[in-house]
Amino acid sequence: MRSKFQKRSKKTGLAPGSLVHIGSKYVEKSKINLIRYSETFFEEKEISSIKDFCFENDKKEIAWLNVDGLQDIKLFEDIGELFGLHPLVLEDILNTDQRPKMEDYGAYIYLVLKNFYEQEGEGLQSDQISVILGKDFVLSFLERESKIFGSIKEKIGKSKGRIRKEGADYLTHALIDSIVDNYFIVLENLEEKIEVLEDDLVKKPTQSTLHDIHMFKRELIMLGKSLWPLREAINSLERSDSPLINKSIVVYFKDIYDHTIAIIDTVETFKDMLSGMLDIYLSTVSNRLNEVTKVLTVIATIFMPLTFIAGVYGMNFRYMPELEWRWGYFGALGVMLVVALLMVFYFKKKKWF
Q1: What does pTM read for this prediction?
Q2: Alpha-carbon separation of residue 18 from 21, 50, 72, 141, 177 (angstroms)
Q3: Over its length of 353 residues, how does the chain's per-residue pLDDT go in tens digits?
Q4: Triad 117, 123, 127: Cα angle to 5°
Q5: Whether residues 270 and 317 fall in one domain
Q6: Residue 242 belongs to what domain range?
Q7: Domain limit, last residue, from 243, 265, 283
Q8: What's phi and psi for 45, nearest 5 deg?
Q9: Which residues contact 322 (CB under 8 A, 6 or more apart)?
Q10: How do strand 137-142 and strand 62-68 relate by DSSP bridges?
Q11: Is 240 within 8 Å of 164 (Cβ atoms)?
Q12: Domain CATH number, residue 268
């Protein structure tokens, strides 16, 4: 297994303990947090190496190993050896372009999830979170350091709820539930922005309004690409007959599944709203253009007969009686004024402007 996984190290150009370029920032060595607990016992500590982790099956304790950062290849080799993880699982953990999924390997269940967050100036971003459920242990791998599981650590530490009384399957449920709940927060923030955008659209739409509509549609599409596979992954967990998932815990996965359906419905609603807003924007711009065109058309129509009169008396024929009249010039201007007023009156009566 080491030799096959070592190929991944060469492919990515990473060496054990080296830095890796993620986006525009360099991240330091992976941070490893270990929590052990039972109904009467709790211990949390940071470890510098997987060698500091001693897994003892006879102690009836749940071990939760959380790794922030995916740059330490040697660390993943050691974790793979210690827990007997398949090389393809290690590959998928490091490849952060995975779709949410659930894979049952018998001795453990592998889950890929997506965590979404707002980044100033860059909009909605996503990180991959991998979770492995085993017998009396849970492994979680985060693409970057995050506080997404902070509330779960607090519940375990303060023995809140039933998490200390249950097994690793309930802890896995809590991790997934925390990620799914974060979708609601993302959607609430997105809803506020859409409401502000809707107000701007009604008042005075600009080019930036159109840009925002397209940006929000892209973000919703990105959410949808993760939500549909997530629904299938949770459904697979709910229907799984794996001995790692207690039958009494299945109902909790069903609750997460229902939340996922609600989130998908909300995303689809937002998509419909943005499509309607795009139609309103295009209609508003079209109406505004029509109003401008109508005004210009009325002005051009009024000046057409005036231009005709001016053109007639601008011809250089020798015998034009009106050219000899004393008040010919003022008479021509008067006729132009009367024609213009009559046309304005006619347009007003027809309510063309």
Answers
A1: 0.76
A2: 10, 17, 7, 18, 33
A3: 333 334 333 333 333 333 333 333 334 578 899 999 998 889 999 888 877 776 554 467 899 999 999 888 888 988 999 999 999 999 999 998 899 999 999 999 999 999 998 887 778 889 999 999 999 999 999 998 888 999 999 999 988 888 998 999 999 999 999 999 999 999 999 999 998 888 888 777 888 888 889 899 999 999 999 999 999 999 999 998 899 999 999 999 999 999 999 999 999 999 999 988 888 888 888 888 888 888 888 888 888 988 888 888 788 777 777 777 778 888 888 888 998 898 888 888 887 77
A4: 35
A5: no
A6: 31-68+96-283
A7: 283
A8: -160, 160
A9: 313, 328, 331, 332
A10: parallel
A11: no
A12: 3.30.460.20
The alpha helices in 106-206, defined as continuous H runs, are 150-158, 168-203
Encoded amino acid at 6, one letter? Q
Tell me the CATH number at 301. Answer: 1.20.58.340
- 277 and 297 fall within a common domain: no
Within the chain, strands assigned E span: 20-22, 25-27, 31-37, 42-47, 62-68, 101-104, 109-119, 123-134, 137-142
